[in-house]
TrEMBL record:
PROSITE patterns: G_PROTEIN_RECEP_F3_3 (PS00981), G_PROTEIN_RECEP_F3_4 (PS50259)
UniProt GO cellular component terms: plasma membrane
TM annotation in the entry: 574-600, 612-630, 642-660, 681-708, 733-754, 766-787, 799-823
UniProt organism field: Larinioides sclopetarius
Protein known as: G-protein coupled receptors family 3 profile domain-containing protein
Annotated signal peptide: 1-21
Residues covered by the G-protein coupled receptors family 3 profile domain: 575-840
Biased composition (Polar residues): 858-878
Keyword entries, A-Z: Cell membrane, G-protein coupled receptor, Glycoprotein, Membrane, Receptor, Signal, Transducer, Transmembrane, Transmembrane helix
Record region (Disordered): 836-879
Annotated PANTHER family: METABOTROPIC GLUTAMATE RECEPTOR
Pfam families named in the record: 7tm_3 (PF00003), ANF_receptor (PF01094)
Length: 889
């Protein structure tokens, strides 16, 4: 023994030799005296009465079935052993005490066993060898600490707390019922089977309820198998008042979606809870109660509340009623002949609502008990009676084996030392015996954790018939750790449409659950469709992406193989025909302009527009129109690389030439006003070199871009396309890199177009250049938001990109070339040299004569001859800047 154990042992000895003698004189006990040489005494702890409401009332009302039937079951089992001495070879006695379902009161009572064993008046015939009990887990835990010190084995017939599995803490504790750790799994399997995912729970304050609640919530958190949430977990205090029950029922009713309530309460509290439901006028059937083994199949729980309890599901360790013997024994009991049970008369009075005292009968106006009332009419075997008998048989079997090995164990119990008690403990642990339950040939033994084979019965409390409002329990299923839940018959409410208790409706096919952030529960969610290319094999998990080359099935539950398509040319679809036809017409028009320019390249209007730059611009327009064929072609690394080059190349050719042209006009006009010398780099050769250099900047940027980020052909699932497609994707950064330089050129062209907008030279060409730049700006300002808004539709993006580039080329072609073509073809009389007029005050020359000062607003004479300026017209120039002379009249 450790030091603490020695101290505790010494204190217990003092209590046993002093204080206990006072307690024992005041308390009742049921006894069986053992006669003969081999005398073994068993202790018994039973809740004959319920727990009282305080120190003034330590014991409450009598528990008719739970107390008396179990107590009599122990006495009955001992009688069977004593009546078969030739087999057992020993006689048994018993000292049975009332625990009043209270741990403190039970502890006081259990000390009496020590008085019988080691007190000053201890009798050899009353040496307590082992104890049967107790019922409640908290009571068993309390007394187990005492029995451990004195090495007295304890076998419980009803205590199921998981804490009692601790063999180090409770080395002398045994039980013939399974641990609550299995009960938790049974309840969760029931909830899962009926798809109840949103429930409430009511538990009692203390180890039984709180430990069960923690275990069930821990199991849910640690297992992905159970999608169960608790809307409310309500705790009933030990001495709960009517208001406590009303508040809890009111809270349960506030959750409209919750139809199922799990209860871990003892029978008294369950009855009070049902009473509160009736008091608050809760409609019968509003809740389906899931009762633990504290409810089991007890009639007392539902007595008076049958309608409110109807439809409840309860669980209880599987047992079979004692088919022969006990029922007849109990029915034959009479209050006049059952002297060994001091509480039997009280039981009789409570069962038949009568009293034996004439004075009490007269005072309470109750009937007088005769003792001949028919007990068989009100008798129904209590559920744990077989467990009590098994507990006695377990100890009897171990005692028989012990007596064979240790003769003095039965002959000289007063000499039972510590070593002998430890051996008896091992004997109990290794005992195997045949259960007396029903007609089943059940063999019960303990494993290393002192657990017996686990089996549970699942019962429904229901209305038996509609004629006399009779209710009762019926078994609807069973459970064991290997087979798990087995439903043998459906409950009444399941056959009438079922009970729904969940937080959120199931999502439609192909929609995943998104957890509700407000409740933070995995059983509360909103529904959201899976994205394109995703499927949902398990509705409880997020959508998963289909592998490349597969697409979601119609129900979104799996992926199926599909040929990879591409967003490209499809001449049967309108979306491809529109940009292609537009580009083809543009190429035809551009080619026609080229032919006309070539055929009329020596006419004044063609020469005045700068033929070399015009050809350069027309080449850029052809590139722009050709871009549509690249944008809509089958995606490859080559085509995707060409797409990057083409998006900026054609426009840079056009804008470089227009910038060079407008810059040249601006410089010439400014010099003409100031009578300066001829500007530099205005010859056709210089202009072409400048254009090529500007275009090379765009080409260099594009090549660097292709080196840093090589083109690839991404594969993506597009639901609108019905599967996987390949395409050349230009994201925002790629598009910006391809167009930023052209936007810079466009801005410069627009600035110069605005500066030269009023120069009337060359058939008002600067005005048309201005129109071109303004229209180009509008096109690209509209393009960017439209392209970005179609980020998930690559067909639309391809169309927008192709049409925008083609539209830019079309604007340039229409504004800068069609006016010239119109004059060349339809107004040849205007295709002559004209004198020019400055729109502002300026100077000019006529022939080789002196400079002439021009006045703003002077009149124009179209039939005057145009003379080339010696300053600005170089011999052989194909682009003379012509000045118109005005005479002042």
């Amino acid at each position: 023994m450790s030091t603490s154990q020695l101290i505790s042992y010494f204190l217990m000895q003092l209590l046993a030799n002093g204080v206990i003698s006072l307690i024992s004189e005041q308390q009742k006990s049921a006894r069986i005296e053992a006669d003969g040489p081999n005398k073994i005494v068993l202790g018994g702890l039973f809740p004959v009465h319920a727990e009282g409401r305080g120190e003034d009332e330590r014991c409450g009302p009598m528990m008719l079935e739970k107390g008396i039937q179990r107590l009599e079951a122990m006495l009955y089992a001992i009688d069977q052993i004593n009546n078969n001495y030739t087999y057992w070879r020993f006689k048994m006695g018993a000292v049975v005490l009332d625990t009043c379902a209270s741990e403190s009161y039970a502890l006081e009572q259990s000390l009496q066993f020590l008085h019988y064993s080691c007190g000053p008046t201890a009798d050899i015939s009353r040496k307590v060898t082992a104890v049967v009990g107790a019922s409640n887990s908290v009571v068993s835990q309390s007394v187990a600490n005492v029995f451990r010190l004195f090495k007295i084995p304890q076998v419980s017939y009803a205590s199921t707390s998981e804490e009692l599995d601790d063999l180090h803490k409770y080395p002398y504790f045994f039980r013939v019922v399974p641990s609550d750790k299995f009960q938790v799994e049974v309840i969760l399997d029931i909830l899962e089977h009926f798809q109840w995912t949103y429930v409430s729970m009511v538990i009692s304050k203390g180890d039984y309820g709180e430990n069960a609640a923690q275990a069930i919530q821990k199991k849910i958190r640690s297992s992905a198998h159970y999608d169960i949430c608790f809307a409310a977990v309500e705790v009933l205090p030990r001495n709960a008042t009517q208001k406590n029950y009303d508040d809890i029922v009111d809270k349960l009713s506030s959750f409209e979606n919750v139809r199922v309530v799990v209860v871990f309460l003892n029978e008294d509290k369950i009855s009070e809870l049902l009473d509160a439901c009736e008091r608050l006028e809760i409609p019968p059937g509003r809740f389906v109660w899931i009762g633990s083994d504290g409810w089991g199949t007890k009639e007392r729980v539902v007595r008076g509340h049958e309608r409110m309890a109807a439809g409840s599901i309860t669980i209880l360790p599987k047992r079979y009623p004692i088919q022969a013997g006990f029922d007849e024994y109990f029915k034959s009991l009479s209050p006049h002949r059952n002297d060994r049970n001091p509480w039997f008369k009280e039981f009789w009075e409570n069962r038949f609502n009568c009293v034996f005292s004439r004075e009490t009968a007269a005072r309470r106006k109750q009937e007088l008990c005769t003792g001949s009332e028919d007990l068989s009419k009100v008798y129904r075997q209590e559920g744990l009676v077989p467990m009590v008998i098994d507990s006695v048989q377990l100890l009897a079997t171990a005692i028989k084996k012990m007596c064979k090995e240790e003769y003095r164990f039965c002959r000289e119990p007063e000499k039972m030392d510590q070593k002998l008690r430890e051996k008896f403990l091992r004997m109990v642990e290794n005992t195997t015996f045949n259960s007396s339950q029903g007609s089943q040939d059940m063999v019960i033994s303990f494993d290393k954790a002192r657990s017996i084979p686990v089996n549970y019965s699942i019962s429904e409390y229901r209305k038996i018939n509609n004629y006399d409002e009779e209710y009762g329990y019926r078994i609807i299923g069973d459970w064991n750790p290997n087979r798990r839940l087995r439903v043998l018959r459906l409950p009444e409410w399941e056959m009438n449409g079922g009970i729904v208790s969940h937080c959120s409706e199931e999502c439609p096919e192909g929609q995943q659950r998104i957890p509700d952030s407000k409740t933070d529960m995995r059983c509360c969610w909103t529904c959201r469709p899976c994205e394109s290319g995703y499927y949902l094999p398990d509705p409880r998990k997020p959508c998963e992406k289909c592998l490349e080359g597969t697409v979601p099935s119609s129900d979104k539950k799996s992926c199926i193989e599909q040929r990879i398509k591409y967003v490209g040319l499809d001449f049967s679809s309108a979306w491809a025909l529109v940009p292609l036809v537009f580009s083809i017409l543009g190429l035809i028009s551009t080619s026609a302009v080229l032919v006309i320019f070539f055929l009329h390249h020596k006419t004044p209007i063609i020469m005045a527009s700068g033929r070399e730059l015009c050809y350069f611009i027309l080449a850029g327009i052809i590139v722009c129109y050709s871009y549509s064929f690249v944008a809509l072609s089958e995606p490859t690394e080559v085509s995707c690389g060409t797409l990057r080059i083409g998006i900026g190349l054609g426009l840079s050719i056009c804008y470089s030439a227009i910038f060079t042209k407008t810059n040249r006009l601006s410089r010439i006009f400014e010099v003409s006003l100031k009578m300066m010398k001829r500007p530099s780099y205005i010859s056709p050769e210089s202009q072409i070199v400048i254009c090529i250099c500007l275009v090379l900047i765009q080409v260099t940027l594009t090549v660097l871009w292709l080196i840093i980020t090589p083109p690839d052909v991404p594969i993506q699932f597009i639901e609108a396309e019905g599967g996987w497609v390949t395409f050349c994707q230009l994201d925002g950064i790629s598009l910006l890199l391809g167009l930023v330089y052209n936007m810079f050129l466009l801005i410069l062209c627009t600035v110069y177009a605005y500066k030269t907008r009023n120069i009337p030279e060359n058939f008002n060409e600067t005005k048309w250049i201005s129109f071109t730049m303004y229209a180009s700006c509008i096109i690209w300002l509209a393009f960017i938001p439209i392209y970005c808004s179609a980020v998930k539709d690559y067909k639309v993006q391809s169309i927008i990109l192709a049409m925008s580039v083609s539209a830019s080329g079309t604007v340039i072609l229409a504004c800068m070339f069609l006016p010239k073509i119109y004059i060349v073809i339809f107004r040849p009389e205007r295709n002559v040299r004209y004198p020019t007029t400055s729109s502002a005050t300026g100077t000019g020359t006529s022939g080789s004569g002196p400079p002439v000062r021009y006045l703003r607003g002077s009149s124009k004479t179209q039939d005057q001859l145009q003379q080339p300026s010696p300053i600005f017209n170089k011999s052989g120039s194909g682009s003379p800047f012509l000045l118109r002379t005005n005479h002042i009249t």
